[in-house]
């Protein structure tokens, strides 16, 4: 899933986020992934060394695979794998099928939720009702943590969750979560408010938002400069606040 050192997977994630129409090149890349990267467990697994598929990768694949119109039949094993990886607390953790996990990961859960969103939006039928139930349970997992806090102590789970970064790759942050919730038309919930307040606090005097860091990984070109006002973060923050905060 890489060309040189640049990942085809993350390139396709970026193209999906840009809402690029499905070109012949995109269709060819998807066909190649499906032909060469289905693991024994049915998930997408580009690794030559790790037998178990990664649920984060599969959530992201479902996201762009559905957006670019992959045939439902070719998505079935991916859907089966994702459903098999849900934890009892409602979310997902890519370590479940490797080293074991009892508590879900915010990173894994948001990737799966974005994939389910696209699957449902595209009108696929295979196990759709199960995915809708899982969607609600995974949403509740994030809300139970107020998007960034321990559900036991109320402490910030990790400082990186409060940094606004684009592109996010596999990493979770509050803006990615809030943008997901507005994208599915999720109604206002008081448990979103702490994260919404942080977004408003981070707004610059000129009305824009910065990108606060860059995640590692080779890219074809740099979309944003860390520490500078960000078009992507500004767009995402504005649509979140327009949806949830009429006084913003």
Task: Provide an overview of this structure.
InterPro entries: Terpenoid_cyclase/PrenylTrfase. This is Terpenoid cyclases/protein prenyltransferase alpha-alpha toroid. It comes from Trichococcus flocculiformis. The structure is a single chain. By secondary structure, the chain is mainly alpha-helical. The protein has two domains: 1-144, Glycosyltransferase (Alpha/alpha barrel), CATH 1.50.10; 150-248, no CATH class. It has helices at 8-17, 24-36, 55-67, 72-84, 106-121, 128-144, 174-183, 193-201, 231-244, and strands at residues 2-3, 6-7, 209-210, 229-230. Helix 1 crosses helix 3 (55-67), helix 5 (106-121) runs antiparallel to helix 6 and helix 7 (174-183) packs across helix 9 (231-244). The termini are far apart. The relative contact order is 0.10.
């Amino acid at each position: 899933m890489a060309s040189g050192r640049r990942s085809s997977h993350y390139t396709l994630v970026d193209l999906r986020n840009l809402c690029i129409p499905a070109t012949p090149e995109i269709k060819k890349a998807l066909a190649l992934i499906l032909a060469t990267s289905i693991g024994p467990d049915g998930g997408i697994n580009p690794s030559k060394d790790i037998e178990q598929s990664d649920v984060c990768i599969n959530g992201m694949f479902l996201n762009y695979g559905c957006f670019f119109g992959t045939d439902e039949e070719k998505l079935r094993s991916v859907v089966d794998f994702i459903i098999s990886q849900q934890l009892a607390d409602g979310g997902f953790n890519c370590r479940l099928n490797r080293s074991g996990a009892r508590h879900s990961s915010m990173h894994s859960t948001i990737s799966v939720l974005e994939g389910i969103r696209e699957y449902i939006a595209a009108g696929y039928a295979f196990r759709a009702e199960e995915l809708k139930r899982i969607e609600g349970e995974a949403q509740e997992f994030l809300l139970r943590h107020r998007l960034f806090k321990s559900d036991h102590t109320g402490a910030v789970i990790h400082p990186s969750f409060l940094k606004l970064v684009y592109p996010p790759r596999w990493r979770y942050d509050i803006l990615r979560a809030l943008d997901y919730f507005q994208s599915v038309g999720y109604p206002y919930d008081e448990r979103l408010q702490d994260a919404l307040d942080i977004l408003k606090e981070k707004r610059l005097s000129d009305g824009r938002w910065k990108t606060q860091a860059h995640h590692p990984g080779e890219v074809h070109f740099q979309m944003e400069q860390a520490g500078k006002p960000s078009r992507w973060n500004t767009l995402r923050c504005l649509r979140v606040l327009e949806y949830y905060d009429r006084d913003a």
